[in-house]
Amino acid sequence: MLVACGWSTALIVGTAFVGAASVVVSGWLVSGVEEANGSRQTAVERSSMGDYFGGVSAVFSGLALILLVITLLLQQRELRMQRHELSLQREELTASATSCAGAPRRTYVPCMCS
């Protein structure tokens, strides 16, 4: 019980530490961006340009998802064809083994001549 209590305490303290660090770093980054842009109006103008690229990014993300689905479907078809080929190969191997079962076996004798 003492070990479980120690882990839960460490989890709570770690979560609180990460949350506090995120708030501090976010504030530091926002203040740095405002200083680099010069004024809030400039930041708003640049923000609208970033929103435009966000929309373009959404289009490319959708396209990537569609291409991923197409790739998975093609791969599924190729695997189905490969399974079919393997079953045909297995049938041929079985037929070959059956036909060779009745044939007399030959033994290999190495040549000792030099």
Task: Please give a handful of descriptors for the protein shown.
single chain, 114 residues, mainly alpha, 2 helices, elongated
Explained architecture:
The chain has 114 residues and is mainly α. Helices cover 86% and strands 0% of the residues. The chain has two helices and no strands. It is elongated and about 95 Å long.
State the separation between the terminal residues, measured CA to CA.
81 Å
Unreliable runs, pLDDT <50, ≥5 residues?
A: none
Largest sheet descriptor: none
- What characteristic shape results from the CA principal axes? elongated
Percent helix among the residues? Answer: over 70%
Structural class estimated from helices and strands: mainly alpha
Helical segment tally? 2
Helix and strand succession?
HH
- Radius of gyration in whole Å, from Cα? 34 Å
Beta-strand residue percentage: under 5%
The average pLDDT score comes to: 81
Question: What's the short story on this structure?
Answer:
This protein is an all-alpha fold. Helices cover 86% and strands 0% of the residues.
Write the layout of secondary structure elements.
Elements: H1 2-37, H2 40-101
